[in-house]
Write a structure and sequence with these properties.
The protein has a five-stranded antiparallel β-sheet. The two termini are about 30 Å apart. Helices cover about 35% and strands about 25% of the residues. It contains six helices and five strands, in the order αβααββααββα. The protein has one domain: Histidine kinase-like ATPase, C-terminal domain (Heat Shock Protein 90), CATH 3.30.565. The longest helix is centred in the middle third of the chain and has 22 residues. The chain is of the alpha+beta class.
């Protein structure tokens, strides 16, 4: 784990005294499901530090867990020798998490809609990650940048007060 340096720190300047710095963290883990617990714990702690209550922090951690699981299972097809990068940042009014990988690109539009009643009735498992992420977070977007896939998840702090 490492904390990214601010632009001012990279230039050698001292940080501005305009208030407490917003927490930012980059966590890089091997593409193995055994590391998902660490991803959840770090995400939960960062969300709490950003001001979310424990229940909301747990939900955000679940959404990030689902995104990382999708990378391991779909982008990397279970290969344990790759890396998943989790970038967490408190941006004031919103908490932003980016899950970054260098695996196969997966088109989120190709994920079929799920009939949850039928799904539960048939006692099926798996296949709900995208739906959970979109239900929990205020924004879920995907892009390709510099040969890497980036899934950005955003939770607005104002949404907590509205009960979302």
């Amino acid at each position: 784990m490492r904390r990214p340096a601010s632009a001012a720190a990279r230039r050698g300047a001292s940080p501005k005294k305009t208030g407490a710095p917003r927490p930012a963290l980059i966590l890089t883990v091997p593409s193995e499901t055994s590391f998902l617990g660490l991803v959840r714990e770090v995400t939960r702690k960062m969300a709490e530090t950003a001001g979310f209550d424990l229940g909301t922090a747990d939900q955000v951690a679940l959404a990030v867990d689902e995104a990382a699981t999708n990378v391991i299972e779909h982008a990397y097809r279970g290969a344990p020798d790759r890396e998943v990068e989790i970038r967490l940042e408190d941006r004031g009014p919103e908490f932003k998490v980016e899950v970054v990988d260098s695996g196969n690109t997966v088109d989120p539009r190709a994920v079929p809609d799920v009939d949850l009643r039928r799904y539960a009735k048939e006692r099926r498992t798996g296949g709900l990650g995208m739906h959970l992420m979109e239900k929990i977070m205020d924004s879920v977007t995907f892009r390709r940048s510099a040969g890497r896939n980036v899934c950005r998840l955003v939770k607005r702090k104002a949404a907590v007060a509205r009960g979302r």
